[in-house]
Write a structure and sequence with these properties.
The structure holds two protein chains of two kinds. By secondary structure, chain A is of the alpha/beta class. Chain A is built from eleven helices and 14 strands. In chain A, strands 3-2-4-5-7-6-12 form a seven-stranded mixed sheet. A five-stranded mixed sheet of chain A has the order 9-11-10-13-14, sandwiched between helices. In chain A, helix 9 links the parallel strand 13 and strand 14. Chain A is globular and about 60 Å long. Helix content of chain B is about 45%, strand content about 10%. In chain B, helix 1 crosses helix 4 and helix 6 runs parallel beside helix 7. The longest helix of chain B is centred in the N-terminal third of the chain and has 20 residues. In chain B, helix 10 links the parallel strand 4 and strand 5. Chain B is an alpha/beta fold. The termini of chain B are close together. The chains are: A alpha/beta, B alpha/beta. The interface between A and B is medium-sized, with 26 and 28 residues.
């Protein structure tokens, strides 16, 4: 795989929110002491300060009045401080408020456990009506925001912090429906199922495994709660080994959700790679932490080589 | 007896009947009859302004007033407490007239902030009236609403506090000193006006005045107002009257 372009997902999303604000004259954007990178449509932008419950409640007020809303915040604070507001205000009445959560997973690295969200998917999956978008790069995140605006009800877009390698061209990203998994790489022997930041590692791993004679596919599952996960069964047939890689607690993440749903259709070994259910008790950059938890390219390759021999 | 006094007694009798048949938070419903009556009669009537019952447990009070002004049908009103009813013990958006499903205290005010800001974006002169409990002021999230609206001078938002002095377990003052909380609201940039919460003229007057800051109307009320043995009694927060208690209460209101 050639050296990919690195793009800040956050800044790209800021631009996208600006454009969406131009396109939708009733779109409201609310931040929580945010550097939101949007400059236009300021009359429809509000900042509530460091107050996540207020963020969701104020968004609710707008949504009750018929305005679609995008809110920005740090994932661990918006979801865990304002879980009650998300559940009661947004999900129960199914209001169109899109939560763009920044710093998801372990992407805040050295900032520590208070800023990490290795359990965001499982937290939100427990609430009816909450759609979850899992973009792997800036272009997919932009598509996710656009898509969420077209659908009724609340959504969460899982964004990290910092630069991410571009996987999709902007043209290709615009055609993503979020109503089915996306096969990013074809393969015959092994299928890596992933989303978000580990898509890049999975693609690199597939490249390396090819040189070792193992034909490896990569499937991007970029959403939850938009379509019946049973649909995924059509995408996982014919492989000798399935492996799920995610930046989330392995016990409660996308891997555990889909394997339980696809239980009756799993004919081959399936390995789940993710984070152990523990708080990160030391510092490290996002990349160092992912390597420590064996979610880097080398670890994926090693794991597949060991598993395919068995 | 003037027609208004008759109306208020009718509403109180309805609340008692609902709670006798279907249970509910009776004390805190009785304390807000006057404010709900004035609001729905003169300020909200048919969408003139917006309303949120942030102290959602006073749903029986709200439903009785909505029934009185024919926002809900007799059939729907009488379904309260029965299986399948949309009139659950905290108001839900399942009911047409209800804009926000309250129940978890402390959140209605900042939802009101959002609605008030939305009204400004819509260039509408509509106000948002939010009725809160005094126990509700224990909740930190309530203060996020006070902080933001006070700081941004959101004057089309009106916070109305049912200061009946009691919450579920005890007198509000015994748990957390209410006078500090009221002072707190003032110091956050609100105009605090404190009146007799059962005086409909005083309520109307306060709500019709113009203020430079957002208004926090503190209603000094009596929990369980209208029924002598329920007044100021913490055990009537959430309690079903017996047949004897119900009959006694109705006779007092007739």
């Amino acid at each position: 795989m050639k050296e990919p372009k690195l793009v800040s997902v956050r800044i790209k999303c800021g631009r996208v929110i600006e454009k969406l604000g131009d396109k939708h004259p009733n779109l409201i954007h609310i931040t929580s002491d945010g550097n939101d990178y949007t400059k236009r449509n300021r009359s429809r932008h509000f900042d509530v300060g460091i107050a996540e419950a207020n963020l969701i409640n104020v968004a609710t007020g707008f949504a009750i009045k018929g305005f679609p809303v995008i809110v920005n915040g740090i994932t661990s604070f918006v979801l865990y401080n304002a879980y009650l507001q998300i559940r009661n205000d947004l999900c129960y009445p199914n209001l169109k408020v899109i939560i763009m959560g920044i710093g998801s997973g372990l992407s805040y690295g050295h900032l520590g456990f208070s800023h990490h969200s290795p359990e965001d998917i499982s937290t939100l999956y427990t609430i009816p009506n909450m759609k979850i978008y899992l973009p792997c790069d800036a272009h997919e995140a932009a598509a996710a925001l656009s898509d969420a605006l077209k659908r009724e009800g609340p959504s969460f877009v899982r964004v990290r912090n910092g630069m991410e390698p571009l996987i999709y061209s902007s043209k290709k990203a615009r055609s993503i429906s979020f109503e089915e998994p996306q096969l990013l790489r074809e393969g015959k022997d092994v299928l890596i199922i992933s989303y978000g930041t580990t898509i890049f590692n999975s693609l690199q791993a597939a490249d390396e495994l090819k040189t070792k004679g193992i034909s490896t596919g990569v499937l991007n599952i970029n959403s939850l709660m938009i379509y019946d996960p049973l649909k995924i069964k059509d995408y996982i047939t014919g492989y000798k080994l399935l492996i799920i890689v995610e930046e989330h607690y392995v016990d409660t993440g996308l891997g555990s959700i889909i394997t339980s749903k696809l239980h009756d259709y799993l004919k081959v070994p399936i390995i789940k790679m993710g984070l152990p259910k523990e708080f990160v008790k030391f510092g490290g950059t996002a990349t160092e932490l992912l390597t420590h938890y064996k979610l880097d390219t080398n670890s994926i390759v090693k794991n597949i080589l060991i598993s395919i021999k068995q | 007896m003037d027609s208004q006094t008759i109306d208020l007694k009718e509403i109180r009798k309805s609340i008692l009947k609902s709670c006798y048949m279907g249970g509910g938070h009776i004390g805190g419903s009785l304390s807000i009859v006057e404010i709900l009556y004035v609001l729905y009669k003169d300020f909200i009537n048919n969408d003139k302004n917006d309303f949120i019952l942030s102290k959602g447990h006073a749903a029986p009070g709200l439903y009785s007033v909505l029934r009185f002004f024919s926002y809900i049908s007799k059939k729907e009103y009488e379904s309260y407490g029965t299986f399948g009813t949309k009139l659950i013990h905290h108001p839900s958006v399942l009911v047409n007239e209800v804009r926000y499903s309250s129940g978890a205290l402390g959140n209605g005010l900042s939802v009101g902030v959002g609605m008030a800001l939305a009204n400004k974006v819509l260039k509408s002169s509509k106000k948002v009236f939010v009725v809160m409990g005094d126990g509700e002021l224990n909740e930190g999230t309530a203060w996020e609403g006070f902080i933001y609206a006070g700081s941004k001078r959101i004057t089309n938002l009106v916070a109305i506090i049912d200061h009946n002095g009691l919450q579920s377990s005890d007198k509000t003052n015994r748990l957390i000193k209410t006078k500090y909380l009221i002072k707190g609201i003032k110091s956050l940039g609100w105009k605090v006006v404190s009146i007799n919460g059962h005086d409909t003229n005083a309520i109307k007057s306060a709500l019709n005045n113009k203020y430079k800051k957002p208004l926090a109307l503190v209603l000094n009320t009596v929990k369980g107002k209208g029924v002598s043995f329920m007044e100021n009694d913490v055990t009537w927060h959430h309690r079903k009257p017996t047949e004897e208690e119900y009959n006694l209460a109705i006779s007092e209101l007739s």
